[in-house]
């Protein structure tokens, strides 16, 4: 069944369920990012009457007019009841940002979400996703630090944080026609959005970041029908990469040879990194045949780096990788690095990944890495992905003789 997906990119009215005026909360980040949106933004919060200067509503039902898109950013256990309320209101498109579903082992809650969405005729994106962005409608309900420029490249990704990298780049004569983070793909998957962007006149190229494909036949058909160039970056080519994708979005490990066959049949171009997919020369990570720990605020980037390092003969230390999530600030990195330093005899090298998200503090995180290197005397590679938000931190790291890569995955 073909779904109506336009409201994920061109809504007129958006309800932010879990909107907040408190800095550091997801609901606050969403309200901040949506300030440039062309349409109307409706904050929904049972405890507040005014949020960011806008009248807040206790439920979507209280708002008298039509709502094209609802974004849910509340604890996972509250999502089913909120979905029911969206259904009663007649909201047909919902993004579930909330985590805590199948990716954490809570498959029952995810099944409940699917059941309600079908019953209420709601098209759900997520859960555990990073939102959508469309420069042409000034829509950006993601957690990236920067707003992307207009162009003809669409990105469909199972990693939201990797969008933070792409949208932070200073691209010449390139920009984006849309971005979607799939999360757990409880309902919508790659095929649905490949079909959507195939019909989008602004899109010429589609980039995919893949951890798993739910329905190989459906994916193959969507790619074969597409008139647009499709480039895929697949994480989980090695055992270590597979383990990383399982911890990231709950993806089941599948032999990469199966994907190779699908890509070949579908006419999909395969690249090792997103940097290469966007047309930037990939930087090599200079670590070979060592015991390496990967620290990251982005599960997708961690999975790609795990694949690269394993191919270079390294032993990837558990956890694979150590994912401290996109909400990690410099203090979080500092605390974790202090813990790693106490067990320094077990590792030869550390790869620290940072994607520029709303809570990220690149310069302060760089200082924590410099301190770690001085304390442990271990090899440290910083993979600080991006450009605009990263440049100061990169100069600081290089000044202290730490290799800083911005396009390594």
Structure description:
This protein has 3 domains: 6-128, Rossmann fold (3-Layer(aba) Sandwich); 134-278, Rossmann fold; 291-405, Succinyl-CoA synthetase domains (Rossmann fold). It has 409 residues and is an alpha/beta fold. It is globular and about 60 Å long. Residues 248-253 have low confidence and may be disordered. The two termini are 35 Å apart. The protein has 13 helices and 20 strands. Helix content is 33%, strand content 21%. The protein has a 7-stranded mixed sheet with strand order 9-8-11-10-12-13-14. Strands 15, 16, 17, 18, 19 and 20 form a 6-stranded parallel sheet that branches. A 5-stranded parallel sheet has the order 2-1-5-6-7, with helices on both faces.
In short:
This protein folds into three domains: 6-128, Rossmann fold, CATH 3.40.50.720; 134-278, 3-Layer(aba) Sandwich (Rossmann fold); 291-405, Succinyl-CoA synthetase domains (Rossmann fold, 3-Layer(aba) Sandwich).
Radius of gyration: 21 Å
Give the low-confidence spans: 248-253
Question: Based on CA inertia axes, which overall geometry fits?
Answer: globular
Mean pLDDT: 93
Task: Write the topology of this structure.
Elements: E1 13-17, H1 26-33, E2 40-44, E3 50-51, E4 54-55, E5 69-72, H2 79-89, E6 93-96, H3 107-119, E7 123-125, E8 132-134, E9 139-140, E10 150-157, H4 161-167, E11 176-181, H5 190-198, E12 205-210, H6 216-225, E13 229-234, H7 239-249, H8 256-266, E14 269-271, H9 274-278, E15 291-296, H10 299-311, E16 315-316, E17 322-323, H11 330-341, E18 349-354, H12 362-376, E19 379-384, H13 391-399, E20 403-405
Parallel strand pairs: 1-2, 1-5, 5-6, 6-7, 10-11, 10-12, 12-13, 13-14, 15-16, 15-17, 15-18, 18-19, 19-20
Antiparallel strand pairs: 3-4, 8-9, 8-11
Helix pairs in contact: 2-3, 5-6, 6-8, 7-10, 11-12, 12-13
């Amino acid at each position: 069944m073909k779904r109506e997906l336009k409201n994920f990119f061109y809504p007129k009215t958006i309800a932010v369920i879990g909107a907040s005026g408190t800095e550091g909360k997801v609901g606050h980040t969403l309200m901040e990012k949506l300030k440039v949106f062309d349409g109307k933004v409706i904050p929904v919060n049972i405890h507040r009457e005014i949020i960011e200067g806008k009248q807040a509503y206790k439920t979507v039902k209280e708002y008298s007019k039509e709502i094209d898109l609802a974004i849910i950013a509340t604890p996972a256990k509250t999502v089913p009841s909120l979905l029911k309320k969206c259904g009663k209101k007649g909201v047909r498109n919902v993004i579930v940002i909330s985590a805590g579903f199948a990716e954490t082992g809570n498959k029952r809650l995810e099944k409940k979400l699917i059941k309600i969405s079908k019953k209420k005729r709601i098209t759900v994106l997520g859960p555990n996703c990073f939102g959508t962005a469309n420069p042409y409608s000034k829509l950006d309900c993601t957690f990236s630090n920067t707003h992307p420029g207009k162009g003809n490249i669409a990105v469909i990704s199972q990693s939201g944080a990797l969008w933070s990298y792409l949208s932070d780049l200073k691209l010449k004569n390139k920009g984006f026609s849309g971005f979607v983070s799939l999360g757990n793909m409880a309902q919508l998957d790659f095929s649905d959005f490949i079909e959507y962007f195939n019909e989008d006149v602004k899109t010429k190229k589609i980039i995919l970041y893949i951890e798993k494909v739910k329905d190989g036949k459906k994916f193959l058909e969507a790619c074969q029908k597409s008139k647009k160039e499709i480039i895929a970056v697949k994480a989980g080519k090695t055992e270590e990469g597979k383990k990383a994708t399982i911890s990231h979005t709950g993806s089941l490990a599948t032999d990469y040879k199966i994907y190779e066959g699908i890509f070949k049949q579908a006419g999909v171009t395969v690249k090792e990194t997103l940097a290469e997919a966007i047309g930037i020369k990939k930087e090599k990570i200079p670590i070979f045949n060592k015991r390496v720990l990967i620290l990251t605020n982005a599960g997708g980037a961690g999975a790609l780096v795990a694949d690269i390092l394993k191919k270079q003969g390294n032993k990837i230390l558990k956890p694979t990788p150590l994912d401290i999530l996109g909400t990690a600030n410099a203090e979080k990195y500092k605390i974790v690095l202090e813990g790693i330093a106490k067990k320094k005899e077990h590792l030869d090298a550390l790869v620290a990944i940072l994607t520029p998200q709303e809570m990220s503090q690149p310069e302060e995180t760089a200082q924590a890495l410099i301190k770690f290197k001085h304390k442990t005397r271990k090899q440290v590679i910083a993979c600080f992905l991006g450009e605009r938000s990263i440049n100061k931190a990169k100069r600081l790291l290089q000044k202290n003789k730490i290799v800083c890569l911005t396009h390594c995955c």
